[in-house]
Amino acid sequence: MGPLIRCINCDQVFHRTSFDQLPKYESSPAPPGSRRIVDTDDYRDFLESHRGHRLEDLRIIEDSFVSERPYVEPVKVSYFKATNGKDRFVIKKFRKHIDEPLTYHLIYGDFALKCIKVEAQTEEIKRQIRSELGPGGLSDKEADAFARLCQGLATKADVKNLARVPEESPHPLEIYFRMDDVSHAYLLRNCRRIFSGDEFRAIEAFVDRHRDDGVLRLKATYEIQLTEMARSKKKSYSVHESIKQKAVGRKE
Ligand SMILES: [Zn+2]
Question: What are the boundaries of each domain within the chain?
Fold first, then answer.
């Protein structure tokens, strides 16, 4: 069977990781010299506890992995999509403690990423503009005014019209976009109201330097919206909300 197996009777999934996919070879009595592949105990346990049940392979849908925590974080919840060729499922993958093995839950439904805000990297912009234009170049007040202009255009920007910056973000739900031409023109037009002469030219050059891959990239934050189908009932919620609800529930 493939790496992801579903028991149709129990709706449980088992994922054979690259670790337990590495076969362990064991001498086999007959024929002489042949070896038998022995899978790890977890896989055998799964097959044992679902003996006589209907099992099927699920195909993992490529590039569907999402998580609320940074990629490097070992203890986190992530989701990915899988299909048996007919139905689509969401697989929730998590561990509660770093020493625990990963657990996989099968969810009937789907998820999508929804953009919840677009913002300018205001602190980075202020730091960068002060370091590049020097202490004599811009006052803190002017640097603040410039960062506010950037934030203003970020809140008006629509991610649908922005081009994604190809480089990887360390956080799966934070994606960087290049400022579009309309926002760029709007920014320079407004800069003219605050700055003039050499100062304006320095700002204009700063914008050119940082527009594509620098601090002027716009940061979009997404949330995972999970749509769960349970016995013809369809409920839709953001993963973030459901976590909050659970946290509130626990306190009560
Ligand atoms: Zn079963």
Answer: 4-110, 116-221
